[in-house]
Structures are given as structure tokens and as C-alpha cells.
Amino acid sequence: MTRIATLSETRDNCHNCRLRTLCLPDNLPVEDVGRLAGIVQRRKPVSRGTLLFQAGQRFNSIYAVRTGAVKTTTLMANGDEHISGFHLPGEVIGLDAIVSRDHPSTAVALETASVCEIPYAELENLSDRTPALQHQLMRIMSRELLAEQSTNHLLTRRSAEQRLAVVLLTFSERFASRGLSAQRFRLPMSRLDLGNYLGLVPETMSRTFRRLEEQGLVSIAGKEVEIVDICAMQGLAFGAQGAQAARA
Hints:
Elements: H1 20-23, H2 30-39, E1 41-42, E2 51-53, E3 61-67, E4 70-75, E5 81-87, E6 92-93, E7 106-109, E8 114-119, H3 120-129, H4 131-155, H5 160-176, E9 184-186, H6 191-198, H7 202-214, E10 218-221, E11 224-227, H8 230-247
Antiparallel strand pairs: 1-8, 2-7, 3-6, 3-8, 4-5, 4-7, 9-11, 10-11
Helix pairs in contact: 3-4, 5-7, 5-8, 6-7
């Protein structure tokens, strides 16, 4: 039986962390991994709803998610909260504050989660002496920027069904990169949060999930999702040519 993707496995440190290849370069020497581990502050697990940092707070650290999941939010001009991203184990948050030195977003635990806090001043000093680590920082920043731009582009001018299909396929890829099932996984966020991210009201979210089920594309049980027909999902999300490229 295929194991449903979950986000609750524990990690001990940078040396034996199963997510190391997502956070660190493969060629980073053992001694440099040890130096990095020396500045990483491993926080105790936090409960759902706990703030990691708030918009406007002075930037001091970046954070790598170890277990669980985190959402980032921003305030719109009308005062409404907009969810700007969902972050899984192995992903780094807080990078958007490096330039301004103040956090432009708020990070909140979606469920019980643990993170590694990495003081940025110490990380900069270490990366100056460790070229491989400096290159990895640039790679991480580029990866996060490209992922955000790609998702925003895919969600633009698409129907509710297409937007939901895009996001479910994106989560499928992200879980697969962690050695978990690409077809059966548990979403860490509520439908309300997912609708906020997609710009869909709750009623539209419910109808959209139901339509995908009626088309035989997915099977939904609470937060657990099974992509039944991944080729058809890709066709819905990306069109015929995009789906062919996604399978290539």
C-alpha cells in the first residue's frame, strides 16, 4: 500500500536530516556542515496558530521548516489578510526580508511544526568563508523566487477548477521530492486557507472540489487527497501542450 504523504517525521540535526539535500548543497564538506549546524537554533515544536514572525518585525533570522507546515500572509490595502504561500519541510522562509531588513509577511504554523532558526548575520559571516554555502544561499533564493513567480503565472486568468488543479499538482510534486506519494497526500491547510490563497470564496471551493471528484480526477476525504487521473489533471491545469511538457 502506498504511504500517504505526511509532514510529521522528526529530524535530529543537519548531518542526518533526511531533508538535507533540499536545504544544503550535496558537495558541502562535512566540516562545513558542522559549522552550519553550530549556528542553527532548533526550536521546540510549536502548536497550530503559533507565529514565527510578524509583518513589520525586524529581520534577524531565516527559518527552515523541519516538520509540519507553515503559511505566510500579508495584509492587503483594504485590511484583508491574503495567504501568500504554504511552506513544507525543507523549505526556507523569511528570505523576502533580506533587502528591507523588516519582515513584509507573517509566518504562522498550520499544524504542529518545528523549524530551524538560522541567525542571518552569522549565516552571512559563515558563507563568506564557505563558497559552497554562499552558492547554496543564492540557489535557495533563486528557487523560492522562481517557484513563486511560476505559481502566480499559472494561477493568472484561469478558472476555479484550473487553479485548484494547478495547486494540487504543485503539492503532488513537492511531496514527491520528499520521497512521499505523489498521488495520495494530506493537505496541511484548511479549505478556507486554500480558498484564500486561490482567491476563491468557501462556497466556490466546495463546488470546485466536488466538480473535480465528479469528473473522476480526484478523491477527497477531509484533508486527504488522491489524484486519480494525473494525466487528465495535467490537461485541465496546463492544457494539452502544457500537460505533455509536464509529463516529458
